[in-house]
Automatic annotation (TrEMBL):
One of its GO terms (cellular component) is extracellular region. Gene3D superfamilies: CAP. Residues 68-203 form the SCP domain. Residues 25-44 are annotated as: Disordered. Pfam families: CAP. InterPro entries: Allrgn_V5/Tpx1_CS, CAP_dom, CAP_sf, CRISP-related. This is Pathogenesis-related protein 1C-like. It comes from Cicer arietinum. Keywords: Signal. Residues 1-21 form the signal peptide. SMART domains: SCP.
Amino acid sequence: MHTFLFFIVLLIFLTTSTIVGSTNEQPPLMSPAPPHKGGHHGHRRRNTAKFFGYIRKNQTAYLHNQTELANEFVYAHNWVRNEYKLPALTWDESLASIARKYLMERYEDCKLVHSNESYGENMFWGKKLHWTPCDAVYYWYMEKNYYDFKTLKCEPPPKFCEHFTQIVWRDSTHVGCALQHCHLPESGMLIACEYDPPGNYINENPLLHST
């Protein structure tokens, strides 16, 4: 009798242990990493001012003087436009004010998100704080490598080239830009340029007048 009871107790113990072991939950899955913001901080940095032939009064003049900032943006844009025999852009302070106002809205989150303005708009985000007007225009210009003037499309997908086509949009006559370091230094910095009239209409060649 004692032997029978012993086996009953042992059986209950083993069954209970198995049930407890099988109810242990799997560890929670790691949350997916946040999407990586766009920008060009991962590349080896090029001397873009030298590439464009732009000479600064000092290396940080564009950070402290709006005139210097405007001069560098306009110079770099018109260097690109001259490559395609396009009319030069003129600086527009009202467009620059719109760009500054929008970047202030992004001061806390530093997200590379376009505004809802009715102008053409190019944006640039960099993780480090050393990016310059020439840098932004240079990397927008380098998107020319992905633009097919025959098909009027960015090739191959999913390459982007709309920053380039906006710079060389013939009908755009004015530009205004802003540069801002975000609230937290580790969040990076943003650059925005507004263009009037806007470009990038579907199936239209950026080098020709729109119809």
